[in-house]
Structure formats: structure tokens, C-alpha cells
Write a structure and sequence with these properties.
Blueprint (H helix, E strand, L loop, with lengths): L2 E4 L9 E4 L1 H63 L4 H5 L3 H13 L4 E7 L5 E4 L13 H7 L4 E5 L4 E2 L4 E2 L4 E9 L6 E10 L1 H53 L2 H11 L4 E6 L4 E4 L1 H6 L10 E2 L8 H15 L6 E8 L5 E13 L5 E10 L1 H19 L3 E6 L4 E4 L1 H7 L3 H4 L14 H14 L1 E9 L5 E12 L5 E10 L1 H15 L9 H18 L2 E10 L1 H8 L1 H18 L6 E6 L2 E9 L2 H16 L2 E3 L2 E3 L2 E9 L6 H17 L4 E4 L2
Helix pairs in contact: 1-5, 15-16, 16-17
Amino acid sequence: MKIFWKQGAGAGAAQEAAFPLLRYFTTTSLAAFVIVAALLGLVFRQLTIGGLIDGYENEHVNLARLISNQLWASDFGPFVAAMDGRSVAELKAAPQIPVLQGKVRTMLAGTSIFKVKVYGPSGMTLFSTESRQIGEDKSGNAAVIAGLQGRTSSELSHKDSFSSFEGEVQNRDLVETYVPRFDPASHRVTGVFEIYGDATDILAEIAVKQQVIGAAVVGILALLYALLFVIVNRAQRLIERQNRERELAQEALRASEERWKFALEGAGAGVWDRNLLTGEVVFSKRYKEIYGFGADELDDRRESWDARVHPDDLAEAVRQREAYFAGESEAYASERRMQCKDGSWKWVLSRGIVVAMDERGRPSRMIGTHTDVTERHEREQALRLAATVFEIVDEAVVVTDLNNRIVSVNPAFTAITGYAPEEVVGKNPKLLASGSHSPVFYQAMWRALAESGSWRGEIWNRAKSGKVYVEWLAIKQVRDEQGEASHYVAVFSDISERKAAEERMQQLAHYDALTGLPNRTLFHDRLQQSLAKAKRDKTCLALMFIDLDEFKPINDSLGHHVGDLLLKEVARRLLDCLRRESDTVGRLGGDEFVVILPDMETLADATRVAEKILEALARPCELAGRSVGVSASIGIAAYPEHGADDKQLLKSADAAMYQAKQAGRNRYALYG
């Protein structure tokens, strides 16, 4: 499509020219959009993928610290102290290595961790789940050096790529994390703990995110390009219609009347009348008001046409003016920034027409208007920005009317719920309800919206596939210019994976990996809570310290696998002997177990439980095709007689257990 301009009769012979607006727009804007798409894709990739990798490495560092905390004090710490400085042959022949390898593999079963290594203060590999690596000198390894200096290191390496930590090409996708271990007394580094994790899944997730980001950026820019194309096409037709109307008005008016006619047509705009040959220009009162000038300023003056045009807009303004003078457009129209008296800038729409020509056929006089479009320009820019954010934001956005009918959703909503826009628009958001919440929950939500205009919290919903997920939801009430509620906007994100990870970390931090019983940390916490309750309620509490008799010979002769099965069976039988919800069975490590019996009326109640435990453990255990017998020595201490705090009470129970050992094992003993 082309825009035509025809000179009036006063200009002499008719002239006609054409400007292929859409063609130029298509080529130049398409090139610009391709460049912007590439830049946006790069930026989003750096922000999203970089954040994902950093988060994964941090998570791996925390996991390494957690595993080392569980193993160092009881296993690797003593092993490193005993083996550092030994020869390679002595190290590989150490009997502790198979035991530690079995324990580590059992702990890491079902996780992404496939290898664990421990380095001594000299940098030698003292332990590895791969026996061939034991005894290797890694004192030149950058990460080992950093660990011995007290710094934690982590690196994500792709398959067939060079690892700066290992100094070799990796044959799989992995993440390496090195954690220094310190002596609690001297705070000196006593060794370095390293884990290797399989990074195949996270790298696959990164690849998927790269594809999604690229597709999202291209799709969004394509939509914006199509929208601009439609706007330009409509603007072109509007200009054609306006120019035809102006041409008819020009033919009907005499030159002496055209200035005021044009001012009337541009009601509310500032009028300018410019002599194109001398540069003299006259401004109307309204024109001066737009730019902050007084009525006695800017009168009958010479002023360069481009004196107050913003430098960034000047080239386009000149091009539009020259195109009009060359007959490529029917009327002059230019939207640009103009400087006000105080130095600020305003967006204006400048329009004009040539009303007189000289004897050589050159334009000599031009009348036009300036319209302040700053507010419209800012509003359009804000709308474009809001629309872009709505489309590209990772959180799902839902807009509903006051009847709670969905008006619109963004792409992230579809990605999380599986519902396309046409499946949910006009429907109630309750189609996502999972049935996990009572009517009281939703009543409280709507009451908060009515009282404060907002609500936020966790909620369980169901996707189109039937999958139930937990989301963090925030709802805001939207009000119109009169302050009346008009819509509700809900923003939510799927936090199911984060919640599951938190639960897994909680399990690892507080429960024994082998038996599932509370570990030393959780046991001490529950003991302190039980003691606090006993002190408050003035009740008694019994603590049992249980140590299996002759467990090491069983473990050594039948193997660690059978030993682990025996420990799990002992844990199950201990739980069967305790029926009250307030009772606690925990594993301190090795073959040591503890039992908390709160609210005991007499010590006789505790001894009956101990007899029940001894009887339960006396029954042979069928493990891996073998019949294994085991007994235990039990020490019993009571609050407040044998200790006023958790440390003293545990010390008393431990002492009582040794009394039972010395008395012949397979029995219990009261402290004292």
C-alpha cells in the first residue's frame, strides 16, 4: 500500500508521489526484531540457566555437608587420623575401607551421589568408593588445595568436557563438591570430604529451559511484530483519510483564511505559522502554554525548525518533513519529543500542510499544530510493558471478574495447570480445586479479600492431568477509578518440587538413614522437650540406653549386609514394644539405641518395658537365609533422680548400661 500526495491548484502543475510505508516497515522492523529476539534470548538464558546452575551447585554443597556431618565424627574422622601418612600399600590393606565403602553405599542408595572420596591433610586419597583410586596423590588438585585451605568448592562438568578440578576429561555429566572438615578444638583442617553427583537430569532440565526460553522470546516478539504491522496499516489508512479531508478543505478556503480554519480544526492544540523561506514563525497562545512560555514570549521570531527537537528524534522528524515536501505523503505528521522552557521534554504530535508556494514552485508557507500526547504515549508504553510482563512472567496469572469468572490467563498458567485459555475463560477457578481444603478454608480466603483486598498462602490444586500440586498463591482485588472493585488478579507458582526437597532434607537431617529412627539430633531435641514437659507437669521420665551384645562379631562374620538387616529388625522390634505415641526410639549410631519413656508413674513401669524388649530381642532373627540371635544390655536412668538435664540423664543411662554389661550382658540395670 502507498500514500499519495497531490499539490493544490495554487502550486501550479499537479504532482504525485508514493511512499511504500509497509514495505520499509516490514524489512527494517523485522531486522530489528531478530536482533532484539537474540539479545532477549541471551539475557533470559543467562538469568534463568545461570540461576538454575548456581542453585543446583549450592544444593549439592549443602548435601555434601550433610552427608559428611553424619559420617565424619564416627567414621571418617578417626579413619583419617589413623591412616594419614601411611604408605599406599598399608592404606589399601586397611580393614576399615570395605566397612566404610559398604556403609557409604548403603547410605547413598537411591540418590544421585555415585562416588565419595576423602583426602588427608597431605592431599592423598585415603578413601574412595572406587578402590582403585585409594592412595592417589591429589595434592596438586585445585579443589583439594582449596579444601585444605578451608574453602568449599563445587563444579558442574558436562560429559566429554575438561574438568578443571580433576584435570581430565569426564565420561559423564557430573557435579563435584569438596567440603573441608575442621577439628572442633583447634579449628584446623583435618581432611577434605568429596562427593560426585550425577548431573544428567539437571543438564537435561537446562536444555529444556533453553528451548522454552527461545520459543517464548520468538513467540512474544512475533506477536508484537504482527500487532505493530496492524497498527501501521491502520495508521496509514487513517492518514490517507485525513489527508483527503484536508485537501478538500484546502481547496474550499482562501489562503488568508486557512491559518484560523486549521486552528479551529486543531482545537486544543497549539498553532504555528512558519515562513519557510525566511524562517520567521508565529506561535498561538496555546502553543506557548504547552511548552511553558508566557504570552509575551516567542512572538514573531526567527527560529530553526529543529531548535527544540530531542536529538534522538531529530533524524526521523527531518525525514518525515522531507518526505512530505517531496510529495511522498499527503500531509506532514511527526510524533517526537520537544523541549519545554524549563528543560523538560514532552511528546507532541506535530501536523501541518503547505498553504503557499513561491514563483518557482517551492513551499513558502506552512501552517500546523502541536498536540501534547505525553500522557497517551506514557499510557501506551505502560500498557505495552504490562502486556509483555503478563506474557513472559514465569508465574501463572489469572484475571477474573467480580462473579469469579476467568477473563484471561497467561502462558505460565497453561504450563502449570495444563489448561489452554479457551478451556478456562468464562469458567470458575474452582475447576482447579483438589478437594484437599474444607469449605472453611475458602470462606476465610474470601473474607480476607473482602476485608483487606488481598490474600496469600499455600493451596493444593489439581492440574488437567489429575496431578495434585501445591502452589503459592497471591490474590489482589483491583479497583477502578471510582474506587469500586472490578476484577481479581491471582498470581501463583508451583512449589511442589521445593516442598518435596524440603521434606527430603528434613528426613536426612533428623532420621537415621538405615533404620528410619530419629537420629542423634532429633533424639536430643525430643529428650529436651520431654524433660521440659516433665519439669512443668512435675512428672517422671525414664531413659533407656540399649547396646547390642557381641554385635561386631556378627557384623564381621556374616557381613555388613546382614548386620544392617539385623539393626533394622532390632529397630522394628523396639518400636513394637512401645505403643504410646509419646514414647520415642532413636539410634545414636552403630549398635546403640535409646528409648524415652515420658510420664512414667514408677521405675517398675520402665523395668517392665525393658523386660519386654529383652524378650523380643531374644527371639532369633531370620536374615538373608540365616538364623541370627542377638541380645542387648540395657541401662535405665530416671528423671529427676538420676539427672536434671539431658546430658546428665544420658550419662547416667550409659553408665547403667555398662553395669549390665559387666553383670553378664542380656539384662537391664538401674543407675545407682
